[in-house]
Description:
The protein is mainly beta.
Amino acid sequence: MLESQPGLNIRQAEVVDLVIDEGLGTKGLRRVLGLRLRDGRKLMAGATIITTGTFLNGLIHCGEEKYPAGRSGEPASVLLGEALRALGLRTCRLKTGTPPRLDGRTIRWEAFESSRATRSRRPSA
């Protein structure tokens, strides 16, 4: 559906940096001119929107181990995170709170005591 949108060009690639106009224009502000991709290409644009999701500095926790990654073995976007910090932008972790996956067929349910959920007085949205 998006591919058929007139005037919209879609590219899929890893963004590693922003292309910045260092000319310090009005009020001493720098301006983003586009994006630099991992393969060296530049995508220039009048406006740039960064939607980082969970891949920006993505970190997988598996038991006591933790390592940089995205979902399903895809890489984390580490270089873009470093570039944003180098520009003085604050970055933080987005904790997705994904619970561990358990195979219910491997659990002895009869060994556990059932407990009822408590009713919250506040909506949780």
